[in-house]
Write a structure and sequence with these properties.
alpha+beta; binds coenzyme A
Length: 151
């Protein structure tokens, strides 16, 4: 099972390296630092087999949460890291009183879409040609937090 912890100021170079391994348009250390320091930012790191191999960047504000980034290093994929990060995000959001979580994803990103759908995210809508390099539609997903399931 991956071990999940909150990232803190000082983790930005680690996060930037994970970004570069995962995305064609990686976020800079500067923009990552903003999420580490702003009160509404929630950044999680996953460790498996002694290595930090995944992360999630999100924002939680009042009753809404937004998943902004999630990635697992290629050699650690399909081992439950992404699901563990998403589960931890949902739990943190619930603890903070959020009611609804949102995310956007490239239409062709079948791995991420399959993860989100298997975790209960429902398709809410589509934004035509929303992404660049390459141009692609975005799908908007929503998750409603179920408080009756809380212990
Ligand atoms: C999406 C991503 C984070 C999934 O991470 P992961 O650690 O491999 O995910 P998990 O091992 O927890 O898999 C959870 C579920 O995701 C789905 N999934 C993961 N990889 C998949 C693939 N290659 N094809 C289809 N479904 C896939 C499956 O439903 C899987 O459940 P299962 O193992 O029971 O079949 C990873 O593929 C990734 O880093 N992609 C690049 C970055 C990205 O596109 N992020 C999303 C946009 S911000």
């Amino acid at each position: 099972m991956p071990d999940i912890r909150r990232a803190a100021t000082g983790d930005e170079s680690l996060l930037a390296a994970l970004e570069q391994a995962s995305f064609s348009d990686p976020w800079s250390e500067k923009s990552l630092r903003a999420y580490l320091s702003e009160p509404h930012g929630l950044v999680l790191l996953a460790r498996l087999e002694g290595k930090i191999c995944g992360y999630l960047v999100s924002s939680l504000l009042l009753e809404e949460g937004e998943l902004l980034r999630i990635a697992t290093l290629p050699s650690f994929r399909k081992k439950g890291v992404g699901r563990a990060l998403l589960t931890a995000f949902k739990e943190e959001a619930k603890r903070g009183g959020a009611k609804t979580l949102f995310l956007e994803v490239r239409k062709g990103n079948t791995a991420a879409r399959s993860l989100y759908e298997s975790e209960g995210f429902l398709l809410l809508g589509e934004r035509k040609s929303y992404y660049r390099d390459p141009t692609e539609d975005a799908l908007l997903y929503q998750y409603t937090i179920k408080y009756e399931e809380m212990q």
